[in-house]
Amino acid sequence: MTADHGSDYERLGEILRSAADAAAAFHGGLAVRPVAAPDPRLEMLESLSATGPGAEAALANFRRRFGDRFSASAGPRYWAFVTGGTTPAALVGDWYASAIDQNVGAAGDSVATGVTRETLARLMQLFDLPADRFGGAFCTGGTAANVMGLMTARQWAGDRAGVDVAVAGLAAAPPIRLFAGCPHASLLKAMAILGLGRDALVPVARLPDREAIDPEALDAALAATPAGVGKIVSASAATVTGNDFDDLERLADLCARHEAWLHVDAAFGLFARCVPELAPLCAGVERADSIAADGHKWLNVPYDSGFWFTARTDLAEAACRLDAAYLDTGSPEPPWRNRAVESSQRFRALPAWMTLEAYGAQGVRQVVRDNCRQARLLAEWIENSDAYDLLAPVRLNVVCFRALPPAGTDGDAWNRDTLLRIQRDGRVFMTPGAWGGKSGIRAAFSNWMTSDGDVGIATDALADIAADQRRGA
Length: 473
Ligand SMILES: *Cc1c(COP(=O)(O)O)cnc(C)c1O
Hints:
Elements: H1 5-10, H2 12-29, H3 55-66, H4 88-100, H5 112-126, E1 135-139, H6 142-160, H7 165-168, E2 176-180, H8 185-193, E3 201-203, H9 215-223, E4 230-236, H10 248-258, E5 261-265, E6 290-294, E7 306-310, H11 313-319, H12 349-383, E8 388-390, E9 398-403, H13 411-425, E10 431-435, E11 438-444, H14 452-471
Parallel strand pairs: 2-3, 2-4, 4-5, 5-6
Antiparallel strand pairs: 1-7, 6-7, 8-9, 9-11, 10-11
């Protein structure tokens, strides 16, 4: 029997319930299943069928072929990269966004554009950013947020020289340089996308044993830059391994003095602002010209979700304006399509709105606080272990460490082997890290579900692995 879309639609409730059951079963196993898929490869591709069996059979086929071959990246012991999970409320918001399928890029016919505005206002409240200074928008993640920040800075650099870069192009604009101490790789990608070029980066010296910019060196570098060059300072809050924060107050002062744009890549570090004892790390971010942040990391909304803020929405809208008579609905809402690469836009605010509505500021604060405590717990265990050694100081939610090789053994090869053993073991997932010229292992805590007990499971695994590795097992 073949099914058509119509008969699927008549049974929509039933179909959604079976999808919900499948999703709940997946989540039910998250805390106990291996953290990485035992067999992630897909060797046999099945070709397109002429007539499909309908949604429910498609879901069954999907589960049969791929069901147990996903990672537990949404779970409590997936500590690779900086990986958030999804809170129940965020998951519901994401599903509902698909169900109602609003296009936020087109305003005027739906409250979705207003909910987007409310969600951004709530985020500004959460991060203690002045709402009268900043506007913003949702985007797909930290990289897109960095693209938008630098695109706005590029427009600003042209504007100061009387050039509308969006109209006349980069060829008519003054040269632009980006100053940074420890830029995330996505900033270089953003520079490539925006036509600034990766070579426009001016690396600035860092403070000793830090990933933070040396403000004296930045002062000198900006002073040495010829007048007429557009200067963008890209600050970190925080770096991905050392979790270092640039001194944003000092940098804001220097940018004011040297007429430079201050962009802050705060993909996950912005969340330090929710916790009183961590907030000083990120002091001064409210003086930035643009700020990039991620939703799918510490806010724990599903992929893909990012947001960004700027004090110059006028320039952002000039940079990526989309004009067409058929799109002019006369809505009083901000034109979200003019603040993003995407013209048609998913209702990306809804999962974030749901999570903020359900758990409030205190809910987000608790996750950040817990994750930072868990990072310290792991670091303390490592410091007391004779099989492992801490490589970098723990400032926030990331631990970078190293397995101690037996005398006469190559340390890097030993660590690669340790990491492979950790990944094969399946109790906890980590990825490579590097610090001070030494390669190591990196664990990042950003999942709402992670408990102190999960740290115990991980340290048990690390102890077992060290014993096996030393026995040559
Ligand atoms: C993750 C991250 C990015 C990139 O974000 P995506 O969401 O992966 O695009 C940029 N900067 C920092 C500091 C990050 O941690």
